[in-house]
Amino acid sequence: MKKILEVKDLCKTYVVNKHQNNVLKNVNLAVAEGELIAVMGPSGSGKSTLLYTVSGMDGMTSGEVRFKGQSIAALKGDQLADLRLDEMGFIFQQMYMLKNLTILDNIILPAVSSKKNTASRKEKQERGLALMKKLGIGELADNDINEVSGGQLQRACIARSMVNSPSMIFADEPTGALNRTSSEEVTDELIRLNSEGTTILLVTHDSHVAAKCDRVLYIVDGCIKDEITLGKYPGPSALRDRERTLNNWLMDLGW
Amino acid sequence: MFFHILKKDLKRKKTMNIIVLLFIVLSAMFASSSVNNIVTVMGGIDHYMEISGIGDVDMFYLTMEKNHGDTLTPILDEEPSVTEFMKEEVCFLHASEILRDGKKAMDFTNIGMIMRVGTTDVKYFGPDNELIEEVPEDGVYITGSTVSKSDLKEGDMLDVTLGEKTVRLKFLGRGKDAMFGSNFLSNPRLLVSDKVYEELTSDESTRNLRGGVYYVKSDDTKALAEAVANDTSIAFDGSASVVRTTYIMEVLVAAIVLVVSVVLILVAFIVLRFTIGFTIAEEFREIGVMKAIGLKSGSVRRLYLVKYLGMAVIGSVVGYFLGIPFGRLLIGSAEQSMVLGNDSQVLIGALAAIAVVFIILLFCYRCTGRIKKLSPIDAVRSGQTGERFRRRSFMKLGKSRLGTSGFLSANDVISQPKQFGIMTAIFTLSMLLVMILANTANTLTSGKLVVTLSGTESDLYYSRTDISMKITGSEDYNAYIEESESKLAEAGIPGRIRAEYTFKVAGETEKLKRNISAMWCAMTDTSDYVYEAGTPPKNTSEIAATQQICDLFGIDIGDKIALTINGETADYLLTAKFQSMNQLGEVIRLHQDMDMDYSQSANSFAFQIDFDDHPDKETIESRKDTVKKVLLADKVLNVGEFVDDCTNSSSAIAAVKNMILIISIIMIVMITVLMERSFITREKAEIALMKALGFRDRSVMLQHTLRFVIIGVLAGLVSAALCLPLTKLAIDPIFSVMGAKKGIEYEIRPLEVFGIYPIVIIAVIAASALLTSLFTKRVSSSDTADIE
User: Fold this and answer.
1) CB A146 to CB B397 under 8 A?
2) Model pLDDT, residue B387
3) Within the 668-727 window of chain B, which residues sit less than 8 Å (CB to CB) from chain A?
4) What are the residue boundaries of the structural domains of chain A, listed by start?
5) Can you give the three-state secondary structure of B298-362, one letter per residue?
6) Given phi > 0 = left and psi -120 to 50 = alpha, else beta, which region is B531?
């Protein structure tokens, strides 16, 4: 299958108080179109850094990241911004939204800002509403962000990440701040999105979430130590077996 | 532990802490300088009169003896109501008698005086407010605003002539004269040594130039007025309040300083209150955490109080010292013709700075008041979500036609009305101050006031003080007019020439008997003047008067008043009322056919020229040089310049306006920079999010800049709407004191007032916001990972 993201010898080093901290060390990774990949690992292992670096949100120290065949390092600030706007979607652990906008306006904001998205503003609004309905939050369009629950807000963030029909979505612990029920709902939405063709790279601590992914990478001390391929998630009936397999694998890795 | 948290806080929130510290410095600077200025201005004139030695004088007189000798002294000696009086001997001279390198050293149309100091208890001050106890033999101080208008410099050598005698004197600087030194009166006085004065006045030919300035203390001013009513040597008389009122323009400038000072204090505290409130609100989450781990509310509150106490003390000390030069800058414009000051400047400044410390602690105490009421978890939540149930979003992106940056900025302004409303109010105040002063300065140079000064509008005005002094009868006057009109005709610019004269006449009704000023022009029909009520006087037994005269004498249209003119007393019928700023509005107008004795005139206005061909403004301007050459005029002025010359204050107002514009711009730059910097710090999460979503740097900068531009434009619109009513509200009372009781018509120059000034201020706001918004570049999309 065609590669959407290719990472070669990626290194990321922070210097804090004259101490060099190698957060990512020669990471190699390839993501095929339509894949749903989870990145797991202990706290401080470099999961989020990997996500931000490969998505161009943060610079790399060395190595190469190619998104749809294009080297991210070669892109200037504005080109990177356009790439994020039109080709990528982001979901964060904290449900970051602009506080002065309604839920719907927050969702359609990237669409309205995009020059590539030539739909009329009305069409963009309708798409935003359609996404909200699809995610079960259609009635919250005119609500302020402080008037809804965390789960609803995270689904709104998912809708925002989808509004420009990106090629790939990056999610940093999207269920980290949610309760079990909300977490299930959000994960199911991501799986549904993936089943529609969107590539997703997500960071999670939750093996329950990771068990629904096609592939799981395990990262320790900035290196991908191992990975396991679980295949496409067929549905809830296979979940227990997948979770068991995953947990055994994780335990072998010292999780 | 307590100090450890404090130290960490100061280090980690460096930017916000520096911003708050800067606002404290600003507040202390504004407060210490402005409170001092307020105290100084409030007691300004009284203080000046007091140190000049005329604080307890009840009446002032200026007499012109004109070969009749001193007639007032015997009256005052005899008058029982006079408890004490002082007389300064003066000799009159005009501008052409003061030369520098053979040319006129300065221009003035009011009569000048030469005199010595130290003959009475009246004090005069030098350019640096130093007391002039003695004038060096070869030196001269000159008082009055005319000096500032000339290019005279200290050390210049002047040839002063009186009669046949000429002496060469070194100019020692502008002196300050409480009696005649106001911009409104501005009769220059040359202060010379005894020796020089005696030398100059030894010539017999100077006898008709002699006069006196009298400072009279009386226990019954009404009786005094009656006693001197028939003394025709009095050219000017005024009560203590009238002399104080002649400082109206200085008071106007001082009042503007006062208003600016109050505005600056308000602005500083509003912004400070807002900044502290917002900074503490941002810290609620941390407060919650501290409470959750067991710190008591009092300890948490003390943490912030100690922090702000430290910052307030440092800021106030710095602000106090910065306030000293700033205060001088503010008060400087009001001090040109007065000696202002208070004896407790250091103490007042220090008290104001200390007050700032207490006010900051009070703000902090109030802002941290919620700490006590909140449970730890409330505080944590409050820190995260802010006001949970207040609706924030008012605009709809889907329905808007604005671009993203435009929409976000407009929506931010509407969603945070308190925060942006305060800034709009501050920008509005700045614009209004400049606009009101511009309207005032423009009105003073527009010619619209001419009807309240000389009475009628003419094409050009010119002064010949030497001729005015020589005209002693109708023959002289008519001959001069005829000769001058012929010269104009020969020069190809035929026109009519005339001049308004003022006479002192005694007025009497059942209510009062006193000296009043009467305006008269033989060549202007009384129906040509502007009246506010009644019908113009139609014959010599009818007069018009101002409302002030009506109030003084208890008369109204249709009533009669007895006037003693040329030694003859007769009843005159009041037929009309008019407005005048002559003699602060205490004047009457006589019919043109009255037979007046020019030798008895107290004052004459500039000669007025009305060209026969009714030329346009440009042609009038082009004829100035010809008129000056042909008629050997001291100066030739158009109507606007003439009004400016009479009121003598447009340049002072314009200087204050420019100063206020500069101060406003500095204030706006500081507030915009500091507020935008605090917005960036506060909105770091949103900026990072926008960048993560794919917004370019310039979109974020544009959004931040547009917010300020929107409130700048809003401020411009509000200012434009309030400009005229507030100009009337603020400035009408000033002109009312000067005599224009019914208000005046203001000269509004739309391009300047509604165009240039708001655009300059909005451009400054935009530039400051744009440059500060460059700091948003420091926030990157990856900062979303670091947001708490």
Assistant:
1) no
2) 41
3) 685-686, 688-697, 699
4) 3-252
5) HHHHHHHHHHHHHHHHHHHHHHHHHHHHHHHHHHHHHHCCCCCCCCCHHHHHHHHHHHHHHHHHH
6) beta
Would you give the DSSP letter of residue A102? B
Minimal Cβ distance to A109: which of B392, B397, B399:
B397
* B324 lies within 8 A of chain A by CB: no
Say what the pLDDT of residue B1 is.
59
**pLDDT bracket for residue A44 (50, 70, 90):** confident
For the cut 60, the answer to whether the pLDDT of residue B128 exceeds it is yes
Would you tell me which CATH number, out of the four given (3.40.1280.10, 3.40.50.10540, 3.10.20.310, 3.40.50.300), belongs to the domain A3-252?
3.40.50.300
ipTM computed for the complex = 0.82
A57 to B780: CB separation less than 8 angstroms, yes or no: yes
Chain A residues with CB under 8 Å of B393 CB are 100-102, 105, 144
> Considering only alpha carbons, which residue of chain A is nearest residue B385?
A146
- Least confident range from B301-315, B372-386, B658-672: namely B372-386
What pLDDT is recorded for position A34?
93
Interface probe for A, chosen from B408, B415, B693 (most Cβ of A below 10 Å), is B693
Among A92, A100, A109, beta carbon nearest to B784: A92
Instruction: Kindly tell me if the per-residue pLDDT of B469 is higher than 70.
Output: no
Cα–Cα distance between B259 and B616 in angstroms, integer? 40
Q: How confident is the model at residue B227 (pLDDT cuts 50, 70, 90)?
A: confident
Instruction: Answer with the residue of higher pLDDT: B600 or A74.
Output: A74
Residue B412: list chain A partners with CB under 8 A: 100
CB B512 within 8 A of CB B554: yes
CA distance A129 to A138: 6
The pTM of this model reads 0.74
Determine whether the interchain pair A81/B694 forms a contact, defined as Cβ–Cβ distance below 8 Å.
Answer: yes
> Three-state DSSP class for B118?
coil
Picking from B608, B606, B643, the residue whose alpha carbon sits closest to that of residue B447 is B643
Cβ–Cβ gap B694/A82 under 8 Å: yes
User: Model confidence at A29, in pLDDT bands (50, 70, 90)?
Assistant: very high
Confirm or reject contact between B292 and chain A (CB < 8 A).
no
CA distances from B206 to A243, B60, B159, B203, B679 (A): 120, 24, 17, 6, 74
Instruction: State the pLDDT at residue B70.
Output: 86
pLDDT band at residue A241 under the 50/70/90 scheme = very high
- Residues of A with CB below 8 A from B784's CB? 57, 92, 96
Residues of B in contact with A105 (CB under 8 A): 393, 396-398
On the question of pLDDT at B384 being above 50, the answer is no
Domain-wise residue ranges, chain B: 1-52+245-390, 66-232, 402-448+647-788, 460-637
Q: pLDDT-derived band of residue B14, with 50, 70 and 90 as boundaries?
A: confident
Q: In the structure, what pLDDT confidence band is assigned to residue B90 with cuts at 50, 70 and 90?
A: very high
- What does the alpha-carbon distance between residue B23 and residue B399 come to, in Å, rounded to a whole number? 39
A146/chain B closest Cα distance in angstroms: 6
3-state SS string for B579-639: CCCHHHHCEEEECCCCCCCHHHEEEEEEEEEEECCCCCHHHHHHCHHHHHHHHCCCEEECH
Query: How do residues B655-681 score in pLDDT, each as one tens digit?
Result: 778 888 888 888 888 888 888 888 888
CA quadruple B672, B673, B679, B684: dihedral positive or negative? positive
Alpha carbon B743 to its chain's center: 17
CB-based contact, A148 to chain B, within 8 Å: no
| Separation of alpha carbons B614 and B632, rounded Å | 23
